[in-house]
Amino acid sequence: MKTPKNVGLNDTFITLVQVAKEDPTVQATLVRILSLQPELRQTAIKQLVGQLEASQAPKEFVVALAYLQDDDIANALFVELSKI
């Protein structure tokens, strides 16, 4: 998946980050995923995205999670969530 350079303009991604900062369970889940080696993280995100698509989750949410396949985005969010 080609990640757009304007991920910071994606409202759903921003909301996902805010929720992760406020909800310890969401934060812990994302940190566990983001701390995986890149190949494992990408596989886990792809599987999660597939499951969400199959369950007809909101497309915007699926796209926001799919951004985490990108190494730079995943690393930046991992650093941010690890500060909390």
UniProtKB/TrEMBL annotation:
<protein>
    <recommendedName>
        <fullName>HEAT repeat domain-containing protein</fullName>
    </recommendedName>
</protein>
